[in-house]
Fold:
Amino acid sequence: MPLSFDRTYAADALASLDGADRESLDARALDAHRRVLAGDTRSPEMLGWRQMLLDPDDALLENVAGVAAEIRDRADVLLCIGIGGSYLGAEAVMQALVPPFSDDGPEILFAGNHLGPDYHERLFEYLDGKSVYVNVISKSGTTLEPALAFRLARRFLEERFDDADRRIVATTDADRGALHDFAVERGYRRYVVPNDVGGRFSVLTPVGLLPIAAAGIDIRTLFYGAVAQARELEDADASAPALQYAADRYAFHEAGYATEVMAVMDPRLRGIGAWWQQLFGESEGKEEKGLFPVVLQYTTDLHSVGQYVQQGQRTLVETFLRIDDAEAGPSVQEEDGDPDGLNYLAGTPYGTVNEKAYQATAEAHAEGGVPNWTLTLSRLDAETVGRLLYFYEHAVAVSGTMLGVDPFNQPGVETYKQKMFSLLGKPA
Ligand code: PA5
Structure:
């Protein structure tokens, strides 16, 4: 099975919660699931992330792959400009699937995903002398961070390349917004962020697909992995892992748990964690509801916040995200005299040590009062990652619907923007 879900260390804690009987939880999750399938959710017009998988646009996939091939051929660097849902998905898939230290294809860099002054200064110094392409991604076309970075990037390209306009690909709204209008005026190549797909659900649209393809990843396999997962969930009953996950989370939320840790057991999964963090945080965190999502990387973070997870406030639940790769990596060598006392591990692959660390941590955290689930990927490849993306998208739609919030809006992110624009003196 490409994805398997283990509830062992959540089941006992759930059984002890008042009013969390399995039958009513399952019924509630199934009802929310059916509402998602039937489009009977809040903001039903925002379900395009499902529809595009049920009705795949192969011509679009091919077109994106073609432009990505040109970028791979001509660019030393692809600069992806975007924030939130306009970059996290691409970064997540690349971190998962591009081997570390690989120098195959262009370097993929990000900008406009924060307002760091030093980064944006040194970035363009670093790009000087390189063949640069830019993919500017903004659904609204008005978000400050990417818009500022795009100004810098545009000037940089125009001062250096006769074909500057050819080197810019804009991914934005189909027919409105400042970026759309500017791209039309300049004749940039354009991709559309569909109206019915919110930023955090957009990784499998050109928002994510172009940078992912430029990184050398097979986007068709990725996309069709998500299609397979979506089709399986069409016929799912309450025992489907995505529904069990949503149901369990709901029960803990109602019992007063406040935080969900996603503990990734491999650094390649950290970006998936960051993408999940936005997906769940923005989808559930409203009307004073939702579990606060936090991504941690184990075993690294066991040596920083592991103490808190084991013994701090008992309001945490945890999901381990891992790869079934016990045989992977270098094996520990035997050493004469056993100077560091590690010969007992001789012949053991890194993957096995990591697996034992996971097993030990899941058990210790459960015993310490942190109910936990484990989602295991049978392997880390494009198909499985595609499946994983849809697993979480569907789960959060079900979970948000169970909570009674609108999983597809994000009204809260406007508040800081209004205050910031007022401080910056933006004209009315
Ligand atoms: O999920 C979302 O909608 C947000 O994270 C947006 O993706 C983010 O704010 C960027 O917006 P835009 O693509 O309009 O620039």
